[in-house]
Write a structure and sequence with these properties.
Layout lengths: L9 H5 L4 H9 L1 H4 L13 E6 L5 H14 L10 E6 L2 H9 L5 H4 L6 E3 L4 E3 L5 E6 L13 E5 L7 H11 L7 E6 L5 H8 L3 E6 L10 H11 L3 H6 L15 H6 L10 E7 L12 E7 L5 E6 L7 H15 L3 E5 L6 H9 L5 E4 L5 H13 L3 E3 L4 H8 L13 H14 L12
Parallel strand pairs: 1-7, 1-8, 2-5, 2-6, 6-7, 9-12, 11-14, 12-13
Antiparallel strand pairs: 3-4, 4-5, 9-10, 10-11
Helix pairs in contact: 12-13, 14-16
Length: 431
């Protein structure tokens, strides 16, 4: 698909041009929009765009409503009465209607008239859009529509009530449709929409729309928050969840996060090897951590691998050991017995291996390590999304999302060896 927006600013180029060229600009949106901004195919009733900040959700919503009202896109059926619902009336007006990517901005040759006192947009062809605040769900009683655009439902304070009233209002035409644009939050309404087969889901990351964002924003904000819980939600558009009964919380991990580790007294790479190999086998957990002179543990890397034969995961573990100049490989030997140590020795006999054996279940082994996090004695140096997902979804039954928590197992071995086991001699580096 042609990406005019990556080569210049087609809309800016057409500013000040004759009306016929501006009319052309309205009709060329389909040539340079991102794929995730295009209405999905299929027999859907709800289109849900989950996206990060600045990913182009508002622009997609405004263009969809423009197509509904004007009939400019043959793939979008016309609608005569459209509901615009935002968190507050100020959000509807300042973002959805008057904002830089809002409805007034995307119209050029054929513009609707905005009547703020009536909360109403009117197009020359008779189509109308009415503005509503999710703060006042009862206002949606009475009016009826054949389409709706709901923005940022993840922020709606009365989400369930406002959503229910909006569904009752969508009763015109042969097939009322609605678009939801939001940054995700782990709320019941969004979870239900994601599980509904009639909902077409589109995902959009902030980085995908980088051409239209300020370089300073990309450097300062995207660079700082990439991979963190907040960044995954607000930039990558991910639904970041955690179990109520998990040993770790997102807030606990975030509170201890650091950009880099200080000078460390000892570094280990912990390995939780799988029993079998192949596509359906458990992953081989490989996590590195170090401890400083004050007894504070720093998680340095998650190099977990999947689907590799023993020689493959041994090479991955040794590569991380070499890169970090670690002091030892801490290897769990319950499942594979002497096999794990033998595989590592065969790959590189110079690497020191410290075997560890589990005498308690996963949950009991993890509890004292989680206590170290609560005491502020463990920090993540950087972001490890897959590992942190396992930590915040680790159940008392010893599983994470129904699977063996291999990354978490390796983390527990590494931290326990550094902070809970008998003290090992500090590392000595030649000058």
């Amino acid at each position: 698909m042609l990406r005019l927006a990556e080569e210049g600013d087609p809309e800016g180029f057409l500013d000040g041009m004759p009306a016929d060229l501006q009319h052309f600009a309205e009709r060329t949106w389909g040539l340079w929009r991102h794929d995730y901004q295009a209405p999905p195919p299929g027999d859907w009733t709800i289109w849900l765009i989950l996206g990060g900040r600045g990913a182009g959700k508002t622009r997609a919503g405004a263009e969809w409503v423009r197509a509904l009202a004007t009939g400019c896109d043959p793939l979008v059926p016309k609608a005569g009465r459209i509901a615009l619902v935002g968190e507050t009336m100020a959000d509807v007006r300042e973002v959805m209607i008057e904002g830089p990517s809002g409805l007034l901005a995307v119209h050029r040759a054929v513009r609707p008239v905005w009547l703020p006192s009536r909360r109403r947009l009117e197009w020359p062809n008779g189509a109308v859009a009415l503005a509503f605040s999710a703060e006042d769900p009862e206002a949606l009683r009475g009016p009826q529509f054949d389409a709706a655009w709901a923005d940022e439902i993840g922020k709606w304070r009365h989400a369930e009530a406002a959503w229910d009233q909006l569904q009752f209002a969508l009763r015109l035409g042969e097939r009322p449709r609605e678009l939801v644009t939001t940054t995700p939050r782990a709320m019941p309404l969004l979870k239900r929409l994601l599980a509904d087969p009639n909902v077409a889901v589109t995902r959009a990351r902030t980085a995908q729309n980088a051409f239209h964002l300020a370089p300073a924003f990309l450097h300062a904000v995207v660079g700082r928050y990439a991979g963190t819980r907040l960044g995954r939600q607000e930039l990558d558009g991910e639904m970041v969840e955690e179990r109520a009964d998990a040993l770790w919380t997102r807030a606990l991990i975030e509170a201890g996060r650091r950009e880099a580790a200080p000078s460390l007294a000892r570094i280990v790479v912990a390995v939780d090897p799988p029993v079998t190999s192949g596509r359906r086998a458990d992953a081989c957990g490989i996590v590195a951590a170090g401890i400083d002179g004050d007894g504070h543990v720093h998680v340095l890397a998650d190099a977990t691998v999947s689907g590799l034969r023993p020689a493959g995961w041994a090479e991955a573990a040794i590569a991380l050991y070499r890169r970090l100049e670690a002091d030892a490989l801490v290897v769990e030997v319950n499942q594979g017995g002497e096999m794990a140590g033998a595989v590592i020795a065969e790959t590189d006999p110079s690497v020191p291996v410290t075997p560890v054996r589990a005498s308690r279940g996963k949950y009991l082994r993890a509890e004292p390590v989680a206590a170290l996090y609560e005491q502020g004695r463990v920090s993540h140096c950087g972001a490890f999304p897959a590992l942190e997902d396992e930590m915040c979804d680790f159940s008392p039954g010893g599983l994470s999302s129904g699977r063996s928590p291999d990354r978490l197992d390796a983390l527990v071995w590494a931290v326990a060896h550094l902070a809970l086991a008998p003290k090992a001699r500090p590392r000595v580096r030649a000058l």
